[in-house]
Amino acid sequence: MRFFFYGTLLDGSDNPVAQAIHALLEPLGPATVRGALHAIPDALGWFPALLAGDGLVHGKVYAARPGFSAADLASMDGYEDFDPANPAASLYLRQELELTGGGTAQAYVWNRALPAGAVPIASGDFQEWLASRGMPQFRGAHGG
C-alpha cells in the first residue's frame, strides 16, 4: 500500500501520529497530485484540505513496510477523522489518487464544505505556505 501525504502527516511533522506511522513507512520521494489545496484555520494551528481541482498539490509518497497492519491504518484514519463505516460523517475520505508522474497512492481528501477563513494555497505546497507566513502547523488530529 502506498500513501500520498501533503500536510501534517509528512515526515518531520512533530505530531505523535506522524512520528509513529513513519517508523512503518518507507519514503519513496516527492510527488504531486491534481487538486486544489486550502489551509484551514483552527485554534490549534493550520491544517490543509485537498479538494478536486486543476492545480498541483505537492507532497511525498510512502510505501507501507512489512508489518504495517490494519491497526496502523485505523490509527491514520482516526487521526484524519475518516470512518470507513460512515464516510458521509467523516472530515476526510481516504481515496486512491493518480500521481502526476504515474502510479497511484492513498490520500486523505477533504469531505466537507470549506469553513469560513479557509485560504487557498496557489502553490499547492502546504509546508512552504506555513513557512513563508510563519504560521503554526496544527497540533491536533487531522491534516493529510
TrEMBL record:
InterPro entries assigned: AIG2-like_dom, GGCT-like, GGCT-like_sf
Highest taxon, organism lineage: Bacteria
CDD domains linked: GGCT_like
Name of the featured protein: Gamma-glutamylcyclotransferase AIG2-like domain-containing protein
Every Gamma-glutamylcyclotransferase AIG2-like domain range: 3-127
Signal sequence range: none
Cited SUPFAM superfamilies: Gamma-glutamyl cyclotransferase-like
One Pfam family cited in the UniProt record for this chain: GGACT
